[in-house]
Design a protein that fits this description.
homodimer, alpha/beta, about 450 residues, 3 domains, SH3 type barrels, five-stranded antiparallel β-sheet, Rossmann fold
Chain lengths: ~450, ~450
């Protein structure tokens, strides 16, 4: 495990960060000669190549890379903050109810329209949320913390690590469930990341978002929040799931397994859908009822000790193939020092044959290459056609029925543990968090003509 | 238009190729000093950077790049071949029926299992096809030509140009329809390419494939072929369409508009589905009946003069964004001299904000950047959130409800006509071949829970 990086950092920078136990989001002061930089520690960005740069977010919001030499001094000024936003809230709460923590990361569900520009901007207003959804106080005893305040399109693997650490913290403190408010753009990715990053979850972690801003009449925030809190408080399973509208009306929400869910529509309330798996449950929030319709893989069990494994390798790339793709892009990724490649190929798991020499070079350079399909539905099978067989011979790891996005997250997570190719292959082929469905039934393909 | 390349070639190589009227697939002899190379002209590959290489396919199947100097002599040895495979066929045909040309490009529909290796390999057997589907002789007078013999994963924009030229040729010769047999991996891409490459189609061009090899009992070849020939011979529309199984049984096939169709399953017979548009029609081949269920945008009209516009710029890249994406990949694409970028962003059309400076640099360098969504369903709207507004300010062209794959093909085609950014923007925003649906209705989203 000696070659594993630390939030993307290696060598001297890694050693210095470990020596002060620096975590992403901690406030650091960096002195190099007579220059001093201060800001929040960010995960390493591929942008800086292999050079010993430390990335910090300055107070003006910009990220900079500080070149680190042996003589550079890095101090921790403050631990990263997570802001308590609502305990005690203005309304009285019933402490005999299940205790739920809501972690806010940003997104439409905690957003308002900026009336100056007309655009929606993240701006948390806990009291407003509680006012909109008074039913929550009948379901749970609630605490709300702000972990991040970002658009979800700006989410990174380093920030998944941070969210996972917060979720883990509250799980170990005995809460009955964790709700994560998240922007919908990349909520599916984060749900999968949390599925891998915490093993032995005693209680569920429920991601929830909104497709329409909370101060619009058509908002889906309240319905989704009620449903999410119900699942966090009462569901018999303890997985990383997404809870969102099941159809356009307010009849039910669906609980999607984090590793099998995808945002399939730019604007509909029922944009999130399970692919190659049934949703785990339907939720009828007004009746406070959860109906199990799919498979429960991990049961709620307060005696379980959660295990945090939240290191994601940032140097993993997802490449979708297309007819004009040239092998230069694979060569670039190898030469640039990426650690892993997930291909979103065509059909049963193919790329143009002309890419195969470069793919083979990647594998020979110790870079695992995982195959998924841009069809999204169905399973990879690389034994049917000669192209698939050649790709297997080149060392490509078949991604089974994993979503391309889930395979990408899983590979980042696996590479956070090991870069040994045999070990990576074994883990990628092992079903860890429901990302592989051994039995895809006919009813999992939606009905297209209505 | 002086800066437009010729199948990817520029400068001296372009001039020499134009002087001998060389087309993709023509057999060339290249003399440089005392070295002689002979093979089929292939489109330029990005692999060779900006250097004056000519790409030819040798008889051993390998592509090589021949460095071209002023003194290099390029001769045309033979025009590209299209092999007549079945006229007159062994069965007598009825010449009073509509005349249909089938162009074979390869793929499972014209494949057999290689019993030595167990894998499926392309190998056309026209007589077998006709034996399997005797009903075709009741529908049409048939001629079959082999244009290519490739796996569809090896399809390229240069080969789209070649297929388009063949389709155009038979359209101008007064045939009543053209069927293109194609591998399913990239059939959706080729269908969209043919939608753009031939304007004013007098008759339909129908792409058809098979998900199961023709010599397997479960093959869908016969049903699909019957349906495709029926559409080519009798449909009232003249668009580039895909005809494939509409559900798993043999009840009906669906006719999908080429610009709105996507392979959505790795193995099911009904893998092809229309996105953000209804299929144009249902086909009941056994009843020889076509039922229009969607919109007809271009009517069959034998008096129309087709126009061939089959130049696709090969230096266009499709980039799917994901949380760990770094801006270096955009920088690479700019520095490598790509001509256009299609982004498959998240949600309503977003990328991480950290990519925006590189995206702006691309646009400032004259490289159009088009935004689509990895949600696939729904429409881009970059006015709702500040990230979208910043991307618009950086010059990104919103892809409306275009599929990422269709936007990629359209941009390749537009860049084959012009590299003027204003002109590119105008064409990308104009509905040319049904790629933009101004009115997405609720029933276009499939029903997920069955």
């Amino acid at each position: 495990m000696g070659d594993v990086d630390y939030f993307g950092y290696r060598g001297t920078v890694k050693e210095k960060l470990i020596s002060i136990n620096a975590k992403i989001g901690d406030r650091l002061r960096v002195r190099r000669g007579d220059r001093v930089f201060e800001g929040l520690l960010m995960p390493r960005e591929a942008l800086y190549g292999d050079k010993p740069y430390l990335v910090i977010k300055l107070d003006n919001g910009y990220n900079i890379g500080v070149y680190v030499t042996k003589d550079t001094v890095i101090e921790k000024v403050a631990e990263k903050k997570s802001l308590l936003l609502s305990r005690p809230s203005t309304r009285s709460q019933n402490k005999s109810l299940p205790s739920i923590v809501m972690l806010s990361t940003g997104g439409t569900i905690v957003s308002k329209v900026d009336y100056e520009t007309g655009a929606v901007k993240p701006a948390l207003s806990t009291d407003e949320l509680l006012e909109w959804v008074p039913e929550i106080s009948e379901i749970a005893y609630l605490e709300v913390y702000e972990v991040l305040r970002i658009f979800s399109e700006d989410m990174t693997p380093g920030l998944w690590a941070r969210i996972a650490e917060e979720v883990y913290k509250y799980m170990t403190r005995g809460y009955d469930g964790v709700v994560v408010a998240h922007g919908t753009d990349t909520m599916g990715y984060t749900a999968a990341a949390l599925a891998f990053a915490i093993k032995n979850k005693p209680v569920p972690v429920v991601l929830v978002g909104a497709q329409r801003s909370s101060d619009r009449p058509s908002t889906d925030s309240a319905f989704n929040l009620k449903s999410a809190f119900l699942v966090a408080a009462k569901a018999p399973f303890a997985e990383s799931v997404i809870v969102m509208h099941g159809e356009t009306g307010d009849s039910y929400a669906l609980v999607h397994r984090g590793t099998k869910v995808r945002k399939m529509h730019t604007s509909r309330r029922d944009a999130f859908q399970s692919i190659n798996d049934l949703p785990i449950a339907k939720v009828f929030p007004n009746e406070k009822r959860i109906e199990i319709i799919g498979r429960i893989l991990f049961k709620r069990d307060r005696d379980l000790e959660p295990v945090l494994e939240n290191h994601f390798d940032e140097k993993v790339i997802l490449i979708k193939t297309f007819p004009g793709i040239a092998s230069d892009i694979i060569d670039y990724v190898i030469d640039k020092g990426y650690h892993g490649i997930v291909l979103e190929g065509t059909g049963l798991g193919h790329t143009p044959n002309k890419l195969i020499p470069s793919i083979e070079r990647a594998v020979d350079s110790g870079i695992p290459v995982v195959m998924t399909s841009q069809c999204l539905f169905g399973r990879i099978n690389m034994h049917v056609y000669s192209t698939g067989r050649k790709l297997l011979a080149a060392g490509v790891i078949p991604g089974k029925d994993m979503l391309p996005e889930t395979a990408y997250i899983k590979l980042s997570w696996v590479l956070g543990k090991t870069r040994d190719l045999r070990e990576v292959r074994k883990l990628m082929l092992t079903n860890i968090a429901g990302e592989i469905n051994p039995r895809i039934t006919v009813n999992l393909y939606p009905r297209w003509l209505q």
